[in-house]
TrEMBL record:
Its EC number is 2.4.1.293. Keywords: Glycosyltransferase, Transferase. It comes from the Bacteria. This is GalNAc(5)-diNAcBac-PP-undecaprenol beta-1,3-glucosyltransferase. Residues 4-150 form the Glycosyltransferase 2-like domain. It is an enzyme of class 2 (transferase). CDD domains: Glyco_tranf_GTA_type. InterPro entries: Glyco_trans_2-like (IPR001173), Glycosyltransf_2 (IPR050834), Nucleotide-diphossugar_trans (IPR029044). The keyword Zinc-finger does not apply. It comes from Alienimonas californiensis.
Amino acid sequence: MLFSVVIPTYNYGRFLRAAVESVLEQPGDDYETIVVDDGSTDDTPAVLEQFLAELPQRVRDRVRFVRQENAGPSAARNRGAAAAKGDYLVFLDADDRLLPGALERLRSYAADGGFDLIFGGYEAVTPAGRRTPRRAKPLRDSNLRNFKRFLRRRLGSVRLGAAAIRRSRFMELRFPEGVHHHEDVVLVAQLLATGRCVSFPEITLSALKHPDSLRHDLKGLESASTAAAEALFDPAVLPAEMMAMRREYQSDFFLTQFGALARAGRYAEARAVYRRAVREYPRHLLRWPKLRRYLRIVFK
């Protein structure tokens, strides 16, 4: 088995069928699909059961359904990975879709067998149907440079659904279960820092942006605070020269939180978080777009 596609879901029954279909439409017989229901209270189990009943037995046998008490997306992904049989893991969000040929593109690199992380580009899709392509940028031949570029957002965003992670390496790292935002950043950064990685520009994933996902972003940012930095900058995982970026990363996280709070009209909280970001890493005061937004809300 080459790929295990793990789909964590929580109250996304309305999206789930399309996500699973996008996997089963991929050519080949070297992959399985594992849906992990993280304690949904909607119709998720019924949606999947009805969908599977419509499939031929040979296709249905390649889909497994795991249900657990609500423990968060990191725990759900880890649960799916523990049940997986594939050499590589693809973590597909329940509201995302693999595009035609996605696994074939990943397969061409996975055949090498030596990559810990393989990733391509994706398209962001708004509720109105507007599509914005985000192509993966090429990696350098230095783990340190790739680590820095990724955390400084010069490498772009790496969507897990457009990536394949070698399972043996993943089981050594896993998603940090105490982190409910940026948990994907933690894992990808550690892989870039310590593994053999490759990227390709082609787009293999459609990522849907919708009101629920945006609300989750703000809620997750509020709850995460310093947890992501603590999980990422683990001296047992990262080389010493990479640990020096912790304050810069923590400040950047606060700036992300600042922007989300400002957009939500929570200006007093936003101002406090911005000041915290600058105290953590004073050079971020030079980020003019963030400073300009802060000055606009000083008296709001």
